[in-house]
Amino acid sequence: MASAMEALVLYPATHKTAVVDVPKPMPGPGEVLVRIHAVALNPVDSIYVTHPLATQKQRVLGTDFAGVVEAVGPSPIPNSPAVGTRVAGFVQGACSVNELPGAFAQYVALPADLVWTVPKAMSLESASTISMCGLTAAQGVFARLRLPAPFPVPDVYKAKTTTNADPVNILVYAASTSLGMYIAQCLRASEKASGRKIRMIGTASQSKHALLNAPPYSYDAVIDYRHKDWPKMVREATTGGNGVQYAIDCISEGATVSGVESTFEASIHGEGHFATFRAPGGAGGGYDVGSLKVKPTYGAVWEGQGVEVDYGVFKLAPNAAAKELAVEFYQYLSSQDGNFVPNPVRLMPGGLDKIVPDGFALLGSNMVSARDEGPARTEAHMKPISGEKLVYVIEEE
Ligand SMILES: NC(=O)c1ccc[n+]([C@@H]2O[C@H](COP(=O)([O-])OP(=O)(O)OC[C@H]3O[C@@H](n4cnc5c(N)ncnc54)[C@H](OP(=O)(O)O)[C@@H]3O)[C@@H](O)[C@H]2O)c1
């Protein structure tokens, strides 16, 4: 077996990147080694190249991957996927101070309970889009908003009990983001689990309304966030016309947060109703929670890995409940036989060497809401990202 592999690495001191040979990882106890076939891109992959957190000489980039189990480490856990199983998962890449593995490579080793089994009918390209934003969505809906889940959750996330059978109104701001498309599926799964109707109101560009009105998202109303009166239009779209009881801001940058907060019903106060995905303040989404009566709760998907993540400005402690939720969610994905629908894929030409010049150019280097019309490139694969995931093939299946 070769002892080296190709990987896309970041040199934090210079912010430069390169595809180079690095040592091939060995699976540790309870881990699997995955031969990677496809990787999907997330905004954090490029943010921490422009603004590195890592201080090591080099770090392997990349979070989302799908591939085939090549080896099982010593002391396998019960139900560890066998060699040859098609799996998907996510790792940290260079999004931390402490050293953790990256996915933009030929191989990755990670805990066997943090991968899920890809259904036969799903391509690995499609599967690579799910793990990171899918888990982020599950954390937002089931752990932070504590809506009923279609799988067992740790006690700290148990759903709030309610005897109210009226439909609950929920806004998903930026429903056409990768994250938003998984949030909608978690909400529809929650509705099925609890039997309580969710009236789902989304915001997105007009060109994405037909996609979002159709299954598996099946929005009850979709509003164009470019309309200056969109918060009023959201309130008017709720049952009773008084505003929402829950909201999820898939952008969580600057004015999106106060705009979303203004769509709440007047009786809603405090925490537990509003989920955001970038932290407040300048190092995050640049919003201020001080003046908001409905307080957004932020969470980072990395908690699901159950290990300490050092962000420089703060550390996420190992979180056993978040890991348990991740494991349950991935078992749920494995059992869905394709019913959890991947994001539409934009297959990007080239391999590891094209991720930075093409993919990261499209992702930009900080705010999603500040992406301009995209880089001045005319190729079809370089149009702005809208309702899809950028995917690179590392090796054909
Ligand atoms: N906390 C966490 O652990 C975590 C995990 C994953 C992602 N995130 C964060 O979640 C955010 C979304 O990530 P993603 O990968 O889902 O994004 P993405 O798919 O790359 O986002 C692209 C979408 O953003 C929409 N958009 C851009 N500006 C907008 C605005 N001002 N208002 C409304 N929509 C706007 C566009 O909608 P239209 O095409 O309809 O115009 C487009 O479809 C990022 O900030 C990411 O870093 C956080």
TrEMBL record:
Cross-referenced CDD domains: enoyl_reductase_like (cd08249)
Record GO terms (molecular function): oxidoreductase activity, acting on NAD(P)H
Residue ranges of every copy of the Enoyl reductase (ER) domain listed in the record: 3-368
Record InterPro entries: ADH-like_N, ER, GroES-like_sf, NAD(P)-bd_dom_sf, Trans-enoyl_RdTase-like
Superkingdom field: Eukaryota
Coiled coil: none
Transmembrane segment boundaries: none
Entries under PANTHER family matching the protein: HYPOTHETICAL OXIDOREDUCTASE (EUROFUNG), ZINC BINDING OXIDOREDUCTASE, PUTATIVE-RELATED
Protein name: Enoyl reductase (ER) domain-containing protein
Organism listed in the record: Apiotrichum porosum
